Amino acid sequence: EITSLLSLCGGQFSGEQEIHVNSPFWILNIPSEEMARGLMKRTVCAKSIFELWGHGRSAEELYASLKNYPTDKMLPYLQSDSTYKVHIHTFNKTLTQAQKIKKIDALEFLPFKGKVNLKNPEHIFWILEDYGMNPNDVPEEPIHLYFGRWIADGQRELIESYSVKKRHFIGNTSMDACLSFIMANHGRVKPNDIVYDPFVGTGGLLISSAHFGAYVCGADIDYNTIHGLGKASRKNQKWRGPDENIRANLRQYGLEKYYLDALVADFSRPIWRKGMLFDAIITDPPYGIREAPRRMGSQKETLKSVERSTENHFFVSSSYHLSDIFFDLLKFGAEYLVMGGRLVYWLPIYRPEYTEEIIPRHPCLKLISNCEQMLSSHTSRRLITMEKVKEFKDQDETSYLLDGQYMPYRGHNSFREKYFSGVTKRIAKEEKDNQK
User: Fold this and answer.
1) Looking at residue 180, what DSSP letter applies?
2) Can you tell me where the transmembrane regions are (predicted)?
3) Cα–Cα distance measured from residue 247 to residue 175, given in angstroms and rounded to the nearest whole number
4) Distance between CA 388 and CA 334 in Å, rounded?
5) In 3D, which of 367, 364, 363 has the Cα closest to residue 345?
6) Which of 140, 127, 131 is CA-nearest to residue 88?
C-alpha cells in the first residue's frame, strides 16, 4: 500500500530505505513534508508519520544520533513562543508513568525553549521504542529506538466509519472496509478516475474508490443482488427492504454523485465497446466458498441449471472454472484499462500447492505486488496488483494460452473441495481430541 501511494504522490522507494520486515517501524526517504501528508491522507495501514531526528539500537546511540542532527532543522520547532509535548510509544511492552518520565527527562540536552502544553501543543514529539515481535520473549531494553516530530496520522478511522456492520445493504461476501480501502490504494485510485468492478455484488469495493473521488460502476450476473431483491443477508431479517441497493450504500456515505450505474451482465461475455475505458478495475471474484462462480449457459444445457430470479427473470447458469475467471479477468484488464491503469483482485490459493509460477500473467500487464491474507492453515488468498504497460492488440487475445501461464493455475479449479476437505479434517481431529 505504501509503495503504491508513494508512486501516486510522485515519490518512490530508494535503495537506501531501511525496512524491517519484522518491525512495525519503517524509515522512508520522502522528499517533502507535503508528500508525507498526502501519503497519510490515504493510507489505512500506517498509523502515523514522523520527521526522524534520531535513531539507534540503544539509548546512547539514539542520543548520539540526536546530537548529530542539524540544529537549524530543529530550531523552527523549539522557539520560546511555541508549545510542545513529548509522547512515548512502546511496541510489545508497557512502561510505567515513572519510566516514561525518566526517558523524557533524559532528552534535556535538546534545545527546547518553548512551554510544555499537554492538551493543545503546536508541536508533538515522539519517542518510539521497538521491543521485538515475540510477546513471550520481551527484552529488557528496546532493540530499536526512534525520536521524531509528528507530522500526520493515517486514515484508520475510516475502518470504523465505513464498517460493514453499519452498512445499509450487505451480502454474504461484502468486503471488509479496511481491505476495500487497501485495494483502492493499491489501484492508485484518484479523483475523477473511472473505476469498475465486474463482480460488484453489493458494491463494497465501489464505496472505497468513491471516497477517494472516483466515479464508480459495476456489473454482476445476479439480478437480485443488483436490484436489492430477495432474501436478506442479515440475521433476523428475512427479506431485503425496498431501498436496499448499491445506490443506497453510496448515498449513506454522501457519495451518490460518484455512482454511475451497475449492470446485470455475464462477465464471460463481452458487453463493452472496444477501447480503454477504465482507470482501475478492482474486484473480488467468486471462488466457490460463499458464492458460486457461474456464467450464462446455452438452452441445450440441462434444465436443472435453470434458475429463476425475482420478477420472472430466468437464466441458464453453467459452471465457470476459477482458472477461466482469472484469465478472462486479465484479458479484460489488458483490453479495457487505460495505459498505466491497475487491476487489483483476490486470487484464492491452496497453500501446499502454491508457487509464484501459478500467478496468472498477461503480456500487457506487469505484476506490481502479491500479498497474502491467510484464510486457514492450508488456504489463503493473494491480493494481486497488476499495471497495464502495453497496448492491447488482437494477437494478445489468446496469448496467455501459448506461454505456459494458463495451465499452472488450473489445479485450483478444485479450490472449494480442497478448502472444505481441510475443514472436514479439522472437525474430525477436534472430535477425536475431545474423545480422549
Assistant:
1) H
2) none
3) 17
4) 6
5) 367
6) 127
Query: Domain 1-154 falls in which CATH fold?
Result: VC0802-like (3.30.2130)
Give the model's confidence band at 19: pLDDT under 50 very low, under 70 low, under 90 confident, else very high: low
Amino acid identity of 432? Answer: K
The whole-angstrom separation of Cα 87 and Cα 100 is 9
- Pairing label, strands 144-153, 194-197: unpaired
What's the predicted TM-score (pTM) here?
A: 0.85
Q: How many residues in total does the chain contain?
A: 436
Q: What is the pLDDT of residue 242?
A: 77
Check for a shared fold between 1-154 and 159-294+316-421. no
| Tens digit of each residue's pLDDT (9 = 90 or more) over 4-14 | 999 888 776 65
Considering the domain delimited by 159-294+316-421, tell me its CATH architecture. 3-Layer(aba) Sandwich (3.40)
pLDDT tens digits, one per residue of 281-310: 999 998 755 555 656 665 554 444 455 554
Domain residues of the chain, as ranges?
A: 1-154, 159-294+316-421
Terminal Cα distance for the chain, rounded: 47
- How many Cα neighbours within 13 Å face the side chain of 380? 15
- 429: how many CB neighbours lie within 10 A of its CB? 10
Nearest alpha carbon to residue 285 among 383, 159, 406: 383
Q: Please give the average per-residue pLDDT across 87-91, as a whole number.
A: 96
Give the distance, in angstroms, between the CA of residue 89 and the centroid of all CA atoms in the same chain.
Answer: 26
CA-based nearest residue to 316, from 308, 306, 331, 324: 306
Check the CA dihedral 184-185-189-191 and report its sign.
positive
Measured between alpha carbons, how far is 170 from 119 in angstroms, rounded to an integer? Answer: 41
Number of Cβ within a 10 Å radius of residue 408: 17
Provide the 3-class DSSP secondary structure of residue 144: strand
Contact, 123 vs 149, CB < 8 A?
Answer: yes
φ/ψ of 33, rounded to 5, equals: -65, -30
C-alpha cell belonging to residue 343: 487491476
Q: Where do the H-state alpha helices sit in 155-279? A: 157-161, 177-186, 204-211, 223-227, 246-252
Burial class (CB in 10 A: 0-12, 13-18, 19+), 103: middle
Backbone angles phi, psi at 230, to 5 degrees: 90, -160
Q: Helices 33-40 and 2-9 meet at what angle, rounded to 10?
A: 130
